Amino acid sequence: xxxxxxxxxxxxxxxxxxxxxxxxxxxxxxxRHVGVPIGDQIVDLTRLVHDERHDLAEALSxxxxxxxxxxxxxxxxxxxRWLTERLGDEAxxxxxxxxxxxxxxxxxxxxxxxxxxxxxxSSEHHATNVGxxxxxxxxxxxxxxxxxxxxxHGRSSTVVVSGTPIVRPSGQHKAPADAxxxxxxxxxxxxxxxxGFVVGTPSQLGEPVGVADFAEHVFGVCLVNDWSxxxxxxxxxxxxxxxxxxxxxxxxxxxxxxxxxLEAARCDPPPRDPxxxxxxxxxxxxxxxxxxxxxxxxTVVSRPPFDTMYWTPAQQLAHLTVNGASVRTGDLYASxxxxxxxxxxxxxxLELSWSGAEPVTLDDGSTRSFLEDGDTAVIRAWTPxxxxxRIGFGEVAGTIAPAHPxxxx
Amino acid sequence: xxxxxxxxxxxxxxxxxxxxxxxxxxxxxxxRHVGVPIGDQIVDLTRLVHDERHDLAEALSxxxxxxxxxxxxxxxxxxxRWLTERLGDEAxxxxxxxxxxxxxxxxxxxxxxxxxxxxxxSSEHHATNVGxxxxxxxxxxxxxxxxxxxxxHGRSSTVVVSGTPIVRPSGQHKAPADAxxxxxxxxxxxxxxxxGFVVGTPSQLGEPVGVADFAEHVFGVCLVNDWSxxxxxxxxxxxxxxxxxxxxxxxxxxxxxxxxxLEAARCDPPPRDPxxxxxxxxxxxxxxxxxxxxxxxxTVVSRPPFDTMYWTPAQQLAHLTVNGASVRTGDLYASxxxxxxxxxxxxxxLELSWSGAEPVTLDDGSTRSFLEDGDTAVIRAWTPxxxxxRIGFGEVAGTIAPAHPxxxx
Lengths: 409, 409
Hints:
homodimer
């Protein structure tokens, strides 16, 4: 297997030959094609496989990855080998070069049609911090937390690709001292740095997916910013959970990194105590050493470590389906906010500013407890690459636009 | 406008000329077509508009209603007039008769591709009953309940059509007296009798839909059984809301009743106190006089009145989008369990049996606190029809199949 591409790849690039994530792009006014970034170039995979009369040409014709993702693990592996050969062996240069263009000229789109979206809550440090902030008089973790990966369904129609402006949501909020709620733009708009898992192979209604079947169903991994309006959320979430505090937008990175690119990043998750019920036991666990980075207006404010997550994506999928719920091609489930044990590893401003008590200072000297209009948040992630090549996820970015006026009844 | 069809319609039929709901059916091994029931017949609308070279032939070609629903209110009105004329005026009999077949011979399918699914909680009586049962030491209604229509996202991939067997879900549950949860089939499997609203016209991300714009966006109405595993739900739902306790299956009736068929059923909702915030005020409210009926193994166990709902579907849509969340063609949102003030008007077994303290007696002498394997639950609904014609919704039915075995990790 080739270790380097004939296309130059800078050490700082997230996209070496060992990565080869999939995305959807357009250039000029052309239609949406499937593309694979390498270094600072992108391969127009839709055109390449079409012109080569590859048997996957139809599945890779765009405008989403869904038809390809539906074909399952053996097909994903086969295409990855084919691509690795073509980008690794200089003999293929004449055949491939006409299908390259500068990545900077590609407009990136939502890479898949989102079926159901589920958000988990699987960082013990995040859940503990939020519990302390939201429920100061109770236990930080609810009694169920160490028995099951807590999750809830989010809104799939408002999953947007990195770069989409985020309009500040309006809604009801009520300060503890107020007698009644007031309506207006959220004053506590926040980020949540998360990792997302995209389902390729569907399952049957009534048939749970076991922990060991994770890699048969999950196609790849992306970054997620689960934008959150803390004031709206705090007022609405008892008893049925987050709704409008989250549903206005969820941003994802444009690249889906194949699971196979992450083999070297696999690791054991933290010890689980008490031992999980049998359906959640993982003999071959899917902890992942991913280093996240959260940047606000150019200042890195946090570096959350994904290997501290208590529940793995394989356990999340097993839990999600243990009641017989089916998964579909295009399902997205996210890890929940990634927060490490140290203050500078927290994945939300709620935690970083401790609900506003300790504002974060940016490089320009300004401070933030929550997001202001015009602020830009960027989340990136890398595998650590000790002894090997670093795999990057690219980034998920979003800038806050002012709230829209809301008409009365 | 014709008041009766040249097709005979029995008084007991839910499908008079004034109804004309839309569904999707197949016969034999043919593909899925759009159909409209009238009396005990069904019009193969896909074939009829195709052969007549109607300009909506493509939108009505099946296999779902989504392309037609996306066209918006003026087009919905135009087709309804066209259909009413053809089924009301006997002069059209020769042209239409070849497209009729007995309704009993049609296999009915999920009529639309479900985009996002949201479930509300808008019956004050239901929320009060559940609050008393689940949180006996607290206030029955949470402080936010009378300020906003509480809701949460459900799983759209597990929305199934009436008649689909419901496999008993397995999951974690923990009795209050137990120290740790156990895993196994739900022992408290329940129904929730609800009314569902199906979005046709999409909205733009960032642009709320006002209360007054309800009829521009909502295509029609169906019945929903939001199957619920109370033991799974009770253990998991704090702090992020219902998840596996609900996500295994949600059944819908096969017919989408157009809003226009329900004009005569509109009514004022109960007085709201305190007055809702401006974005929830409704000058021209969308309360609906619908009489639901819940049947368990042939015994009518409840008759929930929909006109007792505190929040209307127009308010639910305004709330759902007030933060800028968009709606798509195929979005389904459900009212929440419909329960009236009287015990025999409760829309769930949890309430009817008061969490098992007062089991329901069926006509065969057996009793039920929750659903047993083999039980069949049927929900029907009618407009009252005083001074006019009754509009029926047909039914949403489901039979409980035994739990499947679950593999270990």
